[in-house]
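Table S2 (text version). Query chain:
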Amino acid sequence: GKGGKAKAGARKGKKKNRKTKSGTGTGTGTGTRTRTRTRTRTRRPAKAKTTRESAAGLRERAGEIVSLLHAEYPDADCALLHDGPLELLVATILSAQCTDKRVNEVTRDLFKKYRTVADYAAAPSDVLEEEIRSTGFFRSKTRAIRECCGDIAEKHGGKVPRTLEELTQLRGVGRKTANVVLGTAFGIPGVVVDTHVKRLTNRLGLTKNDDPVKIEFDLMKVIPEDEWVFFAHALIWHGRRVCTARKPDCPGCRLSGVCPSAEL
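Corresponding structure-token output:
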């Protein structure tokens, strides 16, 4: 009817009016409103400027760290229970990816059964695997123990060698294991770099490297040689008790005053 036509006409008129309204922004001359978007860029906060530490300054700070560790952990020592270099060698191999507590539980009976390198070399693989299974990676550890003990029996007269070169030539023995044996069993200075030492020395700014061998050489330059063995033991204790991987206790850390990462 006429009413319907009138309503339709009114709607068309409104649409037409909307199309012909000009915008208040930047026009294009066509009568259509155009909107301009302004992008605001968020500036990233500038990184804090750090002064480069001199070699002499680094050595001095490293000495302060050692002194603080002596005050905090005067009795720091190897946590692996052992009697002699052979037991320490076996315990260190077992400690890979395993807690010292678990290793000590396993070696309590293991060391009663196996007394010499010949005993380990002659042990049936399946038997030794079961005896050390709870330490994890038991197949590779069994192979390492049997083979390195075989090497010692064949090439070194059944005695654990006393040099880094000879120890690292044994199958299954790396620099970390060799330095543990040298420093703890023989009193020969060596820098042990395990997961705790690696983490803490980076946080302390004593190295910028992730490779354990490079870290070892970096530490040898700044830590006095007669402190190498103690330093590693104390740092491992500190890493387990205070400067943990996930939640370091910086407020309760005795080293916070000489640690560039203390406020992170």
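Notes on Table S2: The radius of gyration is 34 Å. Residues 18-32, 42-49 have pLDDT under 50 and may be disordered.
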